[in-house]
Amino acid sequence: MKAWRVHTFGEPRDVLVLEEVPEPDGAYLEGMTMGLGGWEPMSAGREPFTDWVVLAMSHAALALPDVTIARGTYPVPVGRPYIVGQEGVGTVVDAAPGRRDVLGKPVAAVCIQPWGSLAPVSVGVSTVFEVPDGMSDVDAAGFLIPGHTAYHAAIRRGGITAGETVVVLGAGGGVGSAMVQLAVAHGARVIAVVGGAEKVAFCQSLGAEVVDHQAVDVVEGVRALTDSQGVDVVLDPVQGEVASRIRAVLRPDGRHVLCGHAGGLQAHDPDFYLYNHTLVGATLGSYPRHEMRRLTEETHAALVGLVADGRYRSTVTRCVTFDQVPDALTDLAARRTMGRVVVDVRT
To answer: Which domains does the chain have, with CATH numbers?
Structure first.
């Protein structure tokens, strides 16, 4: 099969190669286990990984980790070569014994390297759910990771409640736009931080007030919208230089939820304790498998319920062909995209 693979390190447009690779199958997966950076061969003292499905792919989503893994700046090292892509939609053609109930069904799934989602056949792991009723493959391909990450960061770890004022950094991206919707759905006042008129309009359509960082200083913009009263929560998938500055708008007892690193990782000023601020880490990668399964099921039920109520939607804004992947990832790296970009793997 033809798949988009990376062998070296660099910008996606420079290191992505469309090449023939063997299709993954159940017989091969039975001799594999799962490490922090993805699938690994079995070794002494380790157990095989048994929560997988083999997928005939329909659509796959693009995301910032596709850029940072290629560059070598992702916090978790990923071995080379690997197929690009973190999630997508496909029909289950094989499955581990505990997943055989979904054989033949269309599912949305998270895909882990080296078998990423940008291939005709991929492997879904753990976070595997049937496509919700009425949701297209395009929308479902970009539904899981943004929604599950956003719910974990905003609701479970961030503890957002009705009546609170929440700032969302990077609000025009996949996770950011999901957090905007979830905070609005839970009754919060939401201030989205984005750059450019198109992203301003996008976030306003999701129910947020907006600060355009291309037109005004972020801190001053938030202060103006809140009459200098500050905010209760900052949801931050960006970090970098703005992370320490944005805490100037947090009220005492405010929470700064760190749930990504689009702007890079920097040490945090320890003075946050002087203002009774709480730094909250939020990632879905650190739980034991049984707890991870419980959390994903809980989250998915909540998201599907919000979709059914019309209070949450997949924010796919663009669908590209398979041969357009390098250009689309270049646009994503340059912050020229909004929401989620999806690839039709069949084209």
So the answer is: 2-143+314-344 (3.90.180.10), 147-281 (3.40.50.720)
